[in-house]
Design brief:
single chain, 122 residues, mainly beta, 7-stranded mixed sheet, 4-stranded antiparallel sheet, 11 strands, 0% helix
């Protein structure tokens, strides 16, 4: 059974940093691309970042480029999102998602976790 469990969210000040983690189980983690998405209060779900199965290819939404870094440790079955220079508009519930294949495609995901809340406020 596929399980994705996010952690690392919390309260950060504008300009601060947080590191999200996603512990994966129930599938061969290193065989699949992964991604992060988020949903802010009152808004729709939006894609944030994606990574290929071996970590060599990474992709970012324009609004996080230069601030967020996605990475993965296939030996630990864990996906990460390092978030720097946080802004109040980054406040959202952040989800980890498993892609259907090895190469990243922002639309081709099949499982996601429960999410971890990130709040950016002074």
């Amino acid at each position: 059974q596929v399980q994705l469990v996010e952690s690392g969210g919390g309260l950060a000040q504008p300009g601060g940093s947080l590191r999200l983690s996603c512990a994966a189980s129930g599938f061969t983690f290193g065989s699949y691309a992964m991604s992060w998405a988020r949903q802010a209060p009152g808004k729709g779900l939006e894609w944030v970042s994606g990574i290929g199965r071996d970590g060599s290819d990474t992709y970012y939404a324009e609004f996080v480029k230069g601030r967020f870094t996605i990475s993965r440790d296939n030996a630990k079955n864990t996906l990460y999102l390092q978030m720097n220079s946080l802004k109040p508009e980054d406040t959202a519930l952040y989800y980890c998602r498993k892609n259907r294949g090895a190469s990243f495609n922002r639309y081709e995901y099949d499982y996601w976790g429960q999410g971890t809340q990130v709040t950016v406020s002074s």
